[in-house]
Amino acid sequence: MPDTLVDARGLRCPLPVIRLAAAAKDLPAGTELTVLSTDPAAKHDVPAWCRMRGHEHVGTREHRARSPRGDVGSGADVGSDGRVGNDDRVGSDDRVGGDEDWDGWAVTVRLG
Predict the structure, then answer these.
(1) Is 13 a catalytic residue?
(2) Could you read off the pLDDT of 8-58 as tens digits, one per residue?
(3) Cα separation, 64 vs 62, whole angstroms
(4) First vs last C-alpha separation in the chain
(5) Which residue stretches does the UniProt record annotate as biased composition, category Basic and acidic residues (predicted)?
(6) Domains of the chain by range and CATH?
(7) DSSP track, 67-99
């Protein structure tokens, strides 16, 4: 699980990356942060920020809101290599962020 959670849900570009940068500012290398975002640009902007700043993009997980029946939509894991796979860090059953009624992405980074 990440060391720090950055809740940027409801914020539009560039605010999710600005919030991430502010949260990461004084943290040591090796710290993991997960950005929760409803902005589709974040799934591209956060990995780009990692490349520019020398950090590692650990993975991106799509989060789906619960359906009216209480089911959770499936999400796809996208690793730092761009391949779809299984990332156990942020799973649909982990309820990242505590509030299940949102659609978006959880993007995890490791500070370099």
Answers:
(1) yes
(2) 999 999 999 999 999 999 999 999 999 999 999 999 999 999 999 999 999
(3) 7
(4) 17
(5) 84-98
(6) 4-110 (3.30.110.40)
(7) PTTS-B----EEETTS-EE--TTS-TTS-TTS-
Stretch (H or E) spanning 112: none
Q: Is the peptide bond before 14 cis (omega within 30 degrees of 0)?
A: yes
Active-site residue, from 4, 5, 7, 13: 13
What pLDDT is recorded for position 1?
60
Residue 90 banded pLDDT, cuts 50, 70, 90: very low
**Of all residues in the chain, what percent carry a pLDDT higher than 90?**
64
Q: Do the strands 32-37 and 104-110 form a parallel or antiparallel pair, or are they unpaired?
A: antiparallel
User: How many CA atoms lie within 13 Å of 77's alpha carbon, on the beta-carbon side?
Assistant: 15
Q: What angle do CA 107, 103, 41 make, to 5 degrees?
A: 50
Residue recorded with tokens 């539009």: 12
Query: Which residues on neighbouring strands pair with residue 48, listed in sequence order?
Result: none
